[in-house]
TrEMBL record:
This is DUF4440 domain-containing protein. Residues 9-111 form the DUF4440 domain. InterPro entries: DUF4440, NTF2-like_dom_sf. SUPFAM superfamilies: NTF2-like (SSF54427). It comes from the Bacteria.
Amino acid sequence: MENLKATLIELEEHLFKAEIRASHGELDELIADEFIEIAGSGVRFGKKEVLERLPSELPPKISAFEYELRCLAPNCAQLLYKAVMVKGGDTTAIYSLRCSIWSLINGRWQMIFHQGTLCKPFES
């Protein structure tokens, strides 16, 4: 279970990187075709919108911590964590509780669901 947790954290944080967010090919590999996201704004969108939006957007700086892994089924796991995001050119931190569901599809882990819920700043 610890190996799976490390693998999924690595994949999750891979999606934080500017060069990955800018790469249509990398995003296509990491995000499943049936992907759904519910953004902090409450907007729901799929893989098509991610592939259109992310490569052209100024990437935020994201730091994440307190990861928790839950196995939902064989080859399906949920990663829960806290994140602090600063959007490009801004200095205001945005705090969120996040959840991603990863599924092993054709031999590789892909994200099938993601939700970020905005919250108050985390206490130290």
